[in-house]
Amino acid sequence: MTTPALETKYVFTVTAKIGDVITAGETGIGVRRIIPIIGGEVTGAITGKVLPFGADFQTIRPNELIDLEAKYAFETDDGAIVYVENKGMRFGPVELLQKLKRGEPVDPKLIYFRTVPQFETGHEKYRWLMEHIFVGSAARHADRVVIDVHQVL
């Protein structure tokens, strides 16, 4: 017997509006940044709004690899609250990463930005989010982060 092949299926997109970057400085393992999540929307098989609280806690390592850990929540159009912890990484050519830091546009295809979101909810209709693994393919823009969420089948 062989193990099942991995496949994914697109499920929904999270567009998280972000606030101004707060920098805590060099911590010994990199530069710690905190980026507030101030709203947004969820579209696709699940629809709703990103709630206006939470943040992305980042560490920018000396080689510009960025470790990400976002914690936030969204409310579905039918009233369910879904808590999200989304860990991941962003990496690419240094000059492009520096452009992103300055808020300049960069083709998302040139930056490796992947995440692994985990979900929690007490709403029965969305419990399946807690019973599967998901991966995200993301893009950073000056005022938002867009994450296409795929279910690993």
From TrEMBL:
Identify the species of origin. Bradyrhizobium barranii
Q: Which NCBIfam families match?
A: PRK00872.1-1
Q: Which HAMAP family match?
A: UPF0311
Q: Which family does it belong to?
A: Belongs to the UPF0311 family.
Source species, domain of life = Bacteria
InterPro entries tied to this protein: UPF0311
Short name of one Pfam family: DUF3237
Q: What is this protein called?
A: UPF0311 protein BjapCC829_05245
